[in-house]
């Protein structure tokens, strides 16, 4: 359990592949090789000199050392050597930034995996082949839903997050502040903006200003006009209690994560606007908590994991960005007017789709199967060519590439594929 669970998609994926019906313990029988990298975990742990496990010391010294030794192990693998890893897969939902790219974070392992298929939170152009996988979900929401999937949902709609973002979602996030002024007194609507600060100095400074020139400040001024100054001041105090700081594992962040997850599990609808990127973990956390996503930009739908295999529109409410921006205040009344039979139909569709979209839920092997299928159909032929280029004029096992054209949506039934990952001590 972590407040940074969104960056840990490979943990759930590793669990689902371990129990997958296509898994084999004999690598000679395998068509697909899974490489468990655990990139974010390794970086977060860094040096582990006090670890009591009996492991080689070089694996405890640093993240960089672990990547070096993982690269060496792969290079020495006869299965990797066959086509330079063209039938290998790995995943990481650790996000990139201008100063931190997966290629540099995983060096030299990333160089060894240049012909492998990467599962990422969004597919990018460039070297290698990538396919979308879901972010990790909010553990608290998933746990609450799976404990009582038919529990009452006293909240109509909820949203936790910042109104002030850059890039893709700036306009929509700012317009979400308009909703706040129209739902005053509606106790079944919970919209709690968080405030972004880089350090505590910024927080204390903010308490002496009125969020000037921010969308949060604009929303507070709208609330003050719709109610009174004291109510706006109370809202400001509550927002400052939902601060998003650079300290990702603070007690306050744990409480915010818990509240967000529990609120999703208590809500019928969850607002899914774009943020700094179109796609975020919020979509998958809502699905994990059984909350119907209200997607406020059609690009989110196209960027979502496995959208070519799973019908999101069966359960998600899709609101085009221009329609929302024209009249943000009409969104909640529209959701409130949805007939109960339609709500229930969407909830049943979400429950059916959930294990096909998320790795960290019960029966998530279906989602893992979708990752395998996307890798095989979208990437393996291209990566087979990558292996050929790496070998020069040598011959790669073409049977490995052609077999991969078999679709595997019916996992374990005449699929023609098998998956290998190193057995754990328990399985050995």
From TrEMBL:
Lineage: Eukaryota, Haptista, Haptophyta, Prymnesiophyceae, Coccolithales
A GO MF term: glycosyltransferase activity
Protein name: Exostosin GT47 domain-containing protein
InterPro entries: Exostosin, Exostosin_GT47
Position of the signal peptide: none
Source organism (scientific name): Coccolithus braarudii
Source taxon at top rank: Eukaryota
Annotated family: Belongs to the glycosyltransferase 47 family.
A Pfam match: Exostosin_GT47
Domain Exostosin GT47: 22-326
């Amino acid at each position: 359990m972590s407040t940074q669970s969104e960056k840990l998609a490979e943990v759930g994926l590793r669990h689902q592949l371990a129990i997958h019906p296509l898994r084999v313990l004999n690598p000679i029988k395998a068509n697909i090789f899974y490489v468990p990298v655990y990139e974010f975990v390794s970086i977060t742990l860094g040096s582990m000199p006090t670890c009591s496990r009996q492991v080689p010391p070089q694996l405890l010294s640093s993240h960089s050392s672990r990547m070096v030794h993982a690269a060496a192990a792969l290079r020495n693998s006869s299965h990797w050597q066959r086509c330079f890893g063209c039938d290998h897969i790995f995943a990481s939902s650790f996000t990139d930034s201008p100063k931190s790219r997966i290629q540099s974070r995983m060096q030299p392992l990333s160089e060894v995996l240049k012909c492998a298929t990467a599962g990422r939170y969004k597919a990018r152009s460039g070297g290698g082949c990538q396919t979308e996988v879901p972010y990790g979900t909010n553990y608290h929401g998933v746990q609450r839903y799976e404990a009582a999937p038919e529990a009452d949902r006293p909240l109509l709609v909820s949203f936790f997050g910042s109104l002030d973002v850059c890039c893709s979602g700036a306009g929509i996030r700012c317009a979400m502040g308009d909703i706040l002024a129209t739902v005053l007194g509606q106790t079944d609507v919970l919209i709690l903006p968080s405030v972004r600060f880089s350090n505590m100095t910024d927080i204390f400074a903010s308490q002496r200003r009125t969020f000037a020139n921010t969308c949060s400040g604009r929303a507070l001024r709208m609330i003050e006009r719709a109610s009174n100054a004291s109510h706006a001041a109370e809202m400001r105090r509550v927002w400052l209690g939902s601060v998003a700081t650079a300290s990702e594992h603070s007690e306050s962040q744990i409480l915010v994560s818990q509240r967000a997850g529990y609120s999703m599990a208590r809500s019928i609808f969850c607002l899914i606007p774009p943020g700094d990127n179109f796609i975020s973990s919020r979509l998958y956390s809502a699905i994990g908590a059984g909350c119907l996503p209200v997607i406020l930009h059609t690009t989110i739908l196209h960027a979502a994991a496995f959208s070519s295999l799973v019908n999101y529109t069966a359960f998600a409410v899709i609101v085009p960005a221009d329609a929302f921006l024209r009249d943000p205040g009409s969104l909640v009344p529209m959701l409130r007017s949805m007939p109960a039979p339609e709500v229930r139909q969407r909830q049943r569709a979400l429950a059916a789709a959930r294990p096909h979209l998320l790795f960290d839920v019960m029966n998530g092997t279906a989602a893992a199967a979708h990752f395998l299928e996307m890798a095989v159909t979208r990437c393996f032929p291209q990566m087979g060519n990558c292996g050929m280029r790496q070998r020069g004029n040598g011959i790669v096992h073409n049977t490995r590439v052609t077999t991969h054209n078999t679709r595997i949506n019916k996992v374990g039934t005449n699929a023609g594929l098998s998956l290998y990952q190193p057995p754990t001590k328990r399985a050995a």
